[in-house]
Amino acid sequence: MKTFEYSFTEPGSDIQHDMLTTMLAEIGFDSFMDDEHMLKAYCPADCRDDLAVENLLAEPSFFGIQLLKVEEMPDKDWNELWEASYQPVVVNDRCRVRAPFHEPDSSYEFDLVIEPKMSFGTANHETTAQIIQLMLETDFQRKEVLDMGCGTAVLAILAKKLGAARTVAIDNDEWAYRNAFTNSELNGVSSIEIVLGDASSIQGRFDVVLANINRNILLRDMHFYEAAMKPEAHIFFSGFYTEDLDSIKSEAERLGLHYRRHMSRNNWAAAEFVK
Description:
- The chain is of the alpha/beta class.
- It has 2 domains: 3-82, Alpha-Beta Plaits (2-Layer Sandwich); 125-274, Rossmann fold, CATH 3.40.50.150.
- It has helices spanning 14-26, 50-57, 75-85, 126-136, 154-161, 174-186, 215-227, 245-254; strands spanning 3-9, 31-35, 38-44, 67-73, 89-91, 95-98, 110-113, 145-148, 167-171, 193-196, 206-212, 229-241, 258-265, 268-274.
- The strands form 3 sheets. The chain has a 7-stranded mixed β-sheet, sandwiched between helices.
- The longest helix has 13 residues, at 14-26.
- The model has no long low-confidence stretch (mean pLDDT 89).
């Protein structure tokens, strides 16, 4: 699949940077890289929408950011790019998330191998890293787990490594769906049930739900997640800004989910609720 590289002037702050990448992801961009005072964003050909990008940059929140150029990038160049820029991530000194070309390291309790391709979820982003941190502090033994909006399936894979029983990973993006199979096999956890679909595809009830998506989808689909939770089940949300926590809390409490804790890093939050 052809990929297009969009080069933007450097955002004026970390918050503006994160807001822009989040909004670009919502209109079809899959990956991002900071390079020489520029932000580079990558979009598969079938998601390209220059008008949507133009309208996004016209918003007051992105004042001062300009689109410098758009270039078609062959697949082989994309692979070279992410291999050159992707670094392993370590969470709580227990879990390491690395690419296949990094050497294994048995000093970590969990040394996960993730081939990101164009799927979200490498632990480089604060949202994924924070959910991993919460997971490492949670008992997954023999639990039934749902990873909603699984991306690379890194969270589902970790759940299995932590002792989960039935584990289901759902994503509505076909690229992520295929990538989830690849990563499951790389980590020797092929028993994960991987589903191409949205929240309406959920079947069964779970002890733990993982939902690292974004604020709007979390609020829209939270009732699906709640309906799939067993009594006393835990749900972990991420993919939203710290200032959005009140909205997440309000909807969760309306559905009978009780706030337990949250953490934040660089204005990105992750929160845990219990049914």
